[in-house]
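Give me the fold.
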Amino acid sequence: MTPPSSSGGSKGRKSAVPDLSSVEAVQECFRNNDYIADRTLATTLYLAINLEKPLFLEGEAGVGKTELAKVLAAALDTELIRLQCYEGLDSNSALYEWNYAKQLLHIKMEEGKNEDAKKVEKDIFSQEYLIERPLLRALIRSKDKPVVLLIDEIDRSDEEFEAFLLEILSDYQITIPEMGTIKAHKKPLVVLTSNRTREIHDALKRRCLYLWVDYPTFEKEVEIVTTKVPGAPNKLAEQVCRFMGEARTMDFYKRPGVAETLDWAQALMALQKDELDAQSVRDTIGCILKYQDDIKRLEETGIDNVVATSQLSREVEV
């Protein structure tokens, strides 16, 4: 089975309550939000919503994983809460912290009032002095309806934090020693993404529905470009997507994703190009490749040759 591929956007999002009662309805809803979702992706989303299971998205950078969570929140007309993972991320940064400066100020203000010490302690360890980080915020704000909690690039975090997430995703509750246990009234819809810079433990994956998000096919990428870059000529969109398809077969350090395709198409439109040529590729190469070694590799391969191939492929099909 061919892995699903997608990319998305936010233009034209609807505020009305969406119909997500079927896989087809999910596809249509996402299309209305400028996100092209194939049936496998739409089915996985439908199941994640109805089974209240976390969704684990894995794939190369720039294929639309993060954007999917954004569009999902828009489609459900709910809040998106994002936790950006990084090396050294700990539970305090992800869950909550006390506002120590505000607590100290309160203590100083009460010093001359002979207030009962227990009352002061109760005051400073109340929700007024609590700084909500993304995980706690997702639990608290899923009161009337579930929010979308995006745990982005989980592979960048340490294994200790990954283990810490297991408890959160199992019970959807946390215990704050000074306040007690806080449990979500409704389970937030959790989307985890990974660029696979390291393997994620099976224990975390078992709690989730898994989906590999691949680069799109040529036809799908053309549809994505014409949807996301209004006014782009079909000829230009096809040549850009064929060029990107060729580029992804090369031994780059970082192969360009759909995000780069869209950036490039928008740049070419800004330059008023209606078809691809070698000079425009050289002028806009920074939209496609982000490492000098990759740019040199493309130049050694021959930009003219890749452009000619992208144009020739289209002419042969016509």
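Residues 62 and 257 are 5 Å apart (CA to CA).
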